[in-house]
Amino acid sequence: MTDENQTNTTQRKRWSLKWKWALGTAIGTALIFICFSLLVYKSFTNLLIRQEQRDVASAVSTIQQSLRTESTGLTIKSVAAKLQPEANVEPADGMEARKHGALQTKIFSDSELTALSRTNLAVTVYDPEGTTLYISRKDAHEFKKNANRTIQMIGHGSNSELVGRAPIHAAANHKLIGYAQVTDDLADYHNTTHNLMWIFIVMTLIAIFGATLLGYFLAAFLLRPMRKITQTINAVNLDPQTDSRVPDLNRNDELSDLAVLFNDMLDQMQRYITQQQQFVEDVSHELRTPVAIIQGHMELLNRWGKDDPQILAESLSASLSETQRMQSLVQEMLDLSRAEQLEINFSHETTDVQKLVTQAFNDFKMIHPDFIFTFDDDVKQPVYAQIYRNHLEQILIILLDNAVKYSTKRQEIHLSLSTDIRYIEVAVQDFGEGISKDNLDRVFNRFYRVDKARSRDKGGNGLGLSIAQRLVEGYHGRISVESVVGQGSIFRFHLPILKDPKLLAKAEADTDAVEKIAKSELPAGIRPAVPDPDEPPLDDHEHDSNSIK
C-alpha cells in the first residue's frame, strides 16, 4: 500500500503546460541574454583596454619627447624640471625616499604633460645604469632594460596592470640617456568592468523574471481553448452519443484547426455508431419475416409434412426461397455498410468513367436483347474520377437494373454521359411506371419500396438506391431523380473530375498498361511456340488424326 501511495503521489506531481512554457521561455531568454551580455562585455572591455594602452603609450611618448633634449645626460633635477617645471620641490638625497615617491606632486603646468596627471599612472625614469631618477607614485615593478618601446599586461583579474617601457635617446646624438617606465594600475578599468558586470547580472535577472511572467500569462491566454476541448472530451467519455462539440474558437491558429479536426472525428465516430445501430436494427427488422416464414414451414413439416409430399415440396421450396432472399439481403446490407466507409479504404482509387460506362452499356445491351438501349456520349476523350472501379460499376448496375425492372410497357433505356468544368454527369432514363412526388424524397431510404408487393416479386430488398447514394456521396458526388408517374424516371449522378496531377498520371499509366495487355496477341507471360529442329515433321495420317480429335 505504501508503494502504491508513493506511486500515486509521484503521478500527481506534474508540471502544467503553462509552467513548462514559462520556464522554457525564461531559460531561452536567459541563454540569449547571457550570450548577448558576454559579447557586449567582451567588446566593451577590449575597447577599454585599448584605450588604456593608448593612454600608457601616450604617457611614454610624452616622457620621451620631454627628456630627449638632455644631450649630456639625465639627472634628478633635470628630469624634475622637465616633468614638473613649476614644482619647487627638492629631491630627496636617499634612494629609498626616491623609490617611495620623493618628488610626488599633483602640479603639472605643461599641457603636454596632462597625460601624466592621472591618478592611476605611475611614472618612473631611470638612467642607463638603472638608477631611479624620478618617481611620480609608488611603482612595484622592477626596472628592465628594453631596446624598444613595449606595453605589457602583467597580472590577472583585478590585480592586472599595464606596464609601458621605452628607452630615451638624446635628440642631438641619439645617445641612450635613460629609460622611462609608466605603470597603469587600471583602477578605472576594473571599476568600470565590475559595475558593467553587475549591470548585466541585474538586467539578466530582470529579463528572466519578465520572460517567466510573460511566458506564463501568454501560455494561459493561448491555452484557454484547451479547457473547452477538455470539457468536450469529458462529455464524450460520459456519453459517447452526446451531441456536445467544441464551440467555434474564433481563432485562426493551430488550436482552431485541432478543434475542427476533433469535431470532425466526433462526427465520424457518431456516424459509425449510428451506422452500427442502424445495421443491427435493419437486420433484426428485415430478417424477422423470412426467419418466421422458415420457422413456420419447419413446424408445418414437423407436424404434417413428413407424410404429405405436396406439403413437403411446398415448404422446402418456400424455405429455400426465403433463404436465398436472406442471403441477398445480408449481402446488400454489407455492401451498404462498406459504402459508408469509403474514405478509409478507397481514397486513392481512380477510374476511366467513359470506358466503364461504355462497358456497362454493352453488357446490358447483350443480356437484355429485348430492350432498346441508346447511349449519348458527349465525352470525346478519356475522363477520370477518383472512385473505385467496382463501385462505379455497382452504381451503374443498380440504376440500369432498376430501369429494366420497372420498364413494363415501353422497353427502352437511355444512357448519357457528359461533363462540365468540375463534374462528370451520368444519367439513366427509363419509360416505365415512374415515381410519385410523395415518394421521390424517400426512394433513397433504406428498405423503402414504392410498391412493396411488386418490388418483392421482382426480387428487390429496397437497398439498391440507398447503396448507390452512399457510394456516390462517399466520393464527394451527388445523385438525384426526376420522375413522372406513368412516363418514367431519370436518375442522374455527378462525380468530381480528377484534377490531382499525380493521381491523374497514375490513372493514365494504368490505363495504358491495361490496353497494351488487351491488344497483345498472347496473354501476358505466355511465349510463342518455337519449333524444335530435331523433331521430325508430322505425317499426313497424323494430321488427319489430330484434326479428327
Automatic annotation (TrEMBL):
Name recorded for this polypeptide: Signal transduction histidine-protein kinase ArlS
Domain (Histidine kinase) ranges: 282-499
Enzyme class, UniProt record, top EC level: transferase
Bilayer topology: Multi-pass membrane protein
GO molecular function, one term: ATP binding
Key word Phosphoprotein present: yes
InterPro entries xref list: ArlS_N, HAMP_dom, HATPase_C_sf, HATPase_dom, His_kinase_dom, HisK_dim/P_dom, HisK_dim/P_sf, HssS/ArlS-like
